[in-house]
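To: structure subgroup
Subject: Chain for Friday's discussion

All,

I'm putting the inputs and outputs inline so they're searchable in the archive.
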Amino acid sequence: MKTRTCYQFSKNVDDKWLVNELEMNSPDEFDGEILIALLPLLALNETRDLLLEIGLSNDTEHFKNECKQVIAVAENHQSPKGGKMSFQSLFHNIPESILSVNNKGYAVVAFHKLSENSSNPNYRIIGYAQAVSFDFKHPNYSELQPGFYGNMLRVSEHLDNGVAIYRRKKIFSLMFAALLRLGENLGIDYAFACVGKENESIKQALDFNVKHTDYKHELFRFTM
């Protein structure tokens, strides 16, 4: 397990952004420096100032393009039996398209910090997920419980000399660990997500995380 740093952003009573550093244990197998930003979704409009807080380039267009590279890609889910399902999410404008769906909750963004000597902006976005805030009633409790709906979990397909350097490095597991750390810090005990039945990477990441924490998870099937 590696120790990674999460930077959780929030606003104070004077409407100023504050950053809180959270350490987390990550099961990823990537050797480079990874920083994880826990950004309220509305903060996606203000990344120029926030990225500087964690030592990253504040080039807004670069941030938007990196988000598109990770989010707006086709996804293939291959089952052990050979079945395949493909789909693609298209976001013409970042962050406007994202915020039009729901502006509550957080974006969890994983950055691979590159060499400071690079002539390009000094990071690559390698993981993105959203934890949308919602309330629900658990059958064992009479009161509403706060929860997260996790969606848009993506890992970069970036190739380096023809090799997908972030795939098969347990980056999905890192993203789940960051979502758990965020929920833990916010007092959120419940999270829900829709997972394609052929998505073995997500299932393995879920299993791996619960084995190394006190959390539990449950899978149930439904038809869309």
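Points worth raising on Friday:
The first strand starts at residue 2 and ends at 11.
Residues 24 and 108 are 14 Å apart (CA to CA).

D.
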